[in-house]
Structure formats: C-alpha cells, structure tokens
Design a protein that fits this description.
Layout (H helix, E strand, L loop, with lengths): L9 H14 L6 E5 L2 H9 L10 E5 L10 H11 L4 E5 L14 H6 L3 E4 L5 H8 L4 E8 L4 H13 L5 E7 L2 H9 L8 E5 H7 L5 H5 L3 E5 L3 H17 L4 E4 L10 H10 E8 L3 E10 L8 H4 L15 H5 L23 H4 L4 H12 L1
Helix pairs in contact: 1-10, 2-15, 6-11
Length: 365
C-alpha cells in the first residue's frame, strides 16, 4: 500500500505514530538518514525526533548543497571576485560560507567586490546585457534539482552570444554520495529518506543500489506526515528484510523523473570528479561544463586550479554530513560557531544540520 498523502489531521498523526511505536522493535536500533537539507529543517522545525521511539534515530546526511561545497571551491569564488571587471552572481546562502583565513564572498563584497544575490540564474542574463564590458560569473551550486537552471543559463547565454557570461560549476550528483555512505561500515545506516526534490528530476532508478545493499530507500516529501509515513515504511522494510525503492512523494515525483531536465543537464554538462567538504574527492560526482561551451566555463576561462589545497580546521562538518556525529558533538558548536559567527557551512546554510539544530533543538532543549 502506498502511504503517501493519507494523513491529514491530528487523528492521523496519532495513528501513524502509534504504528511506528508498535512496529519499531525494542531489540534493535533504526538509523535513518535524510539526505536533503529541506528534510533536515522540517524534521527539526517540527520536533519529529521527540515523537519517535528512542531507538529510532534520525541523522543528517550530505544533502545540503552549500554544506558540501569544499573550502577550495569557496577560495576560488573569492579569487574570482577579486577581478575588477567581474560581477559574481549567486544565491544568498553562499555569501557567508568561509574559505581560508575566515574570508567569504560577504567579506569580499564588503571590501568592494561586485557580488550580487540573485533568485534565478537567468537574472544574470539581464545584468550581462546591461553591462557588456563586465564578465558575469554565476556560482552554480546544488544537486540534480538546481543543475538544470545552471544548464539553462549556459544554453541561453551561448544561443544569444553573451560571451561575458560564465558559470563556476560546483554542482554535484547524489548517487556517488550514496555509494560512499553504503560502503562506510561505520555509518551503519538502515534506510534513507531520499530527497523528494532531487527525485523529481532524476526519478527512482538512482536508488536501486541502496536496496541492493539491503537498505531501505523511500522518496519522501517535506511535510511532517510525508516524513513520518516514510519513517514507518523504512521500519517495515527493515523488519521484513524485503527492500524496495518506494515513492512516497507521488504528488510530485514520477518513476522516470523529469526527462527534459535530465536531457538539459546532459546537453551542457559532463560527469567529473568533485571534492565534497568532509567527504573528499568522489569520482564522477560533479558536473563540468562540456568543451563546446568552454567560453561559459569560469574554471577554464580563469584557469582555476582543480587541485587547490585546503587547510584543515576544527570544524566537524564532514563527520556530521556522514551521520557519524550530531551537531552538538562538534567542539565548536554554539561556542565559536554560531549563526552570527559561523565557522562551518553546516551552520551557515539555511538548510544546514548545525543551523537547524541550533535554531530548533538547542532552543527547545
């Protein structure tokens, strides 16, 4: 039976929670990882862990695109902003992520760099047309959800001959992150709340390796009942030992995904190795601009170093993103690292695990 969208009121909440408590065996622990920043915030905002049995553990994974952006990539962004004839366009969360020496795009902007927050990558088109003598670089972060928008910008710029537009592609794809988690015995994950927004683009096939590894994979929406009903399904699969990819987000996600978005990604990008903060370099987990669109690839235009070194920090974002520790276990959490003075990206991003824990769990503890 598909559980999706049948819980709509307080009685339904009681029903599903009763089912979770009844079916979660007291003789084992269930570790369930959400791999989406929106799930992380929804879980924290609604206090869902406090409603679950103590042996049902919800842990955060590498699902926040800002959080998994490497320090080296942030340093490259800052270097690009130093060019006097360059305008950087980006989403707001990227401004405060720290690179080396506590520098960020926000501090670069304060020192005179032309850094602008936009709401759509296509906003860059109007800027580039109005200022043809300036180079406009869109900082492209995200997973399969936002990659089509970055691809659309490249395609439109190329079609209109706007050679003063390029992107710095730091987009990533989810299957390789799942592979890392599945092959890391210390992660000990029983099932995944798979990201509904990514799944709308990719479809369900990317989750088949999860069930082949005898783990549950349930695509979940973002309302509390979406999440709770998906948790129940994961518990049932773990108990039965019968694993299958379940689409619990039927109102938005199709099994095949969005074929047009997939085609656009493949038209503009090619798989490439990518460095994830805390996870290292994952082969073919990034999206690099194809050679035929090289004039719109900031990494090539500005000859950026793909092997730029990073400086170790005390931030434990990497362990948090792999579900090995909770935000409160990081020695910097709520002391040296707060939303007002963030050290790591998990505290900066509005979808970061540390930001969610600080805003909701810490406040309510």
């Amino acid at each position: 039976m598909q559980i999706n969208d049948i819980f709509n009121n307080k009685e339904d909440v009681k029903q599903i929670l009763a089912a979770i408590h009844a079916e979660a065996s007291p003789n084992r622990t269930y570790r369930i990882m959400e791999v989406c920043g929106t799930h992380t915030m929804s879980i924290a905002r609604h206090g869902l862990p406090s409603l679950l049995p103590s042996n049902v553990k919800l842990v955060s994974g590498p699902g926040c695109p800002v959080c998994v952006t490497s320090q080296a990539d942030i340093d490259n962004c800052i270097d690009l902003s130093d060019h006097r004839d360059v305008t950087i366009t980006t989403f707001g969360d990227m401004l405060r992520v720290m690179g080396t020496d506590r520098k960020s795009l926000y501090s670069a902007k304060a020192e005179g760099a032309d850094v602008r927050i936009i709401y759509s990558p296509l906003d860059t088109i109007a800027m580039a047309k109005a200022n043809p003598d300036r180079k406009h670089i869109f900082i492209a972060v995200g997973f399969e959800t936002t990659a089509p928008m970055a691809a659309g910008l490249v395609k439109m710029a190329h079609a209109e001959g706007l050679n003063n537009i390029s992107i710095l592609s730091m987009c990533k794809t989810m299957p390789q992150a799942f592979h890392l988690l599945l092959t890391d015995d210390t992660a000990a994950i029983d099932g995944f709340l798979c990201p509904g927004n990514v799944s709308v683009v990719t479809g369900l096939s990317i989750y088949e390796p999860i069930v082949k590894a005898n783990k549950a994979a349930v695509v979940a929406g973002f309302e509390p009942m979406d999440i709770l009903s998906s948790v129940l399904e994961i518990i049932r699969q773990v108990n039965s030992g019968n694993f299958s990819v379940m689409n619990n987000y039927l109102r938005a996600c199709k099994a095949e995904g969005n074929l047009k978005a997939q085609a656009l990604i493949n038209e503009i990008f090619i798989p490439a190795d990518s460095r994830w903060r805390g996870l290292g370099v994952l082969p073919n987990s990034g999206l690099a601009v194809r050679d035929e669109y090289a004039i719109h690839d900031a990494a090539k235009v500005f000859n950026l170093d793909p092997n730029r070194e990073e400086r170790p920090t005390a931030c434990k974002c990497g362990d948090i993103l792999k579900g090995k520790i909770l935000p409160k276990d990081c020695p910097l959490f709520a002391t040296k690292c707060t939303p007002e003075s963030a050290v790591g990206p998990c505290m900066v991003s509005s979808e970061g695990a540390c930001a969610a824990h600080y805003k909701y769990s810490l406040r309510n503890s």
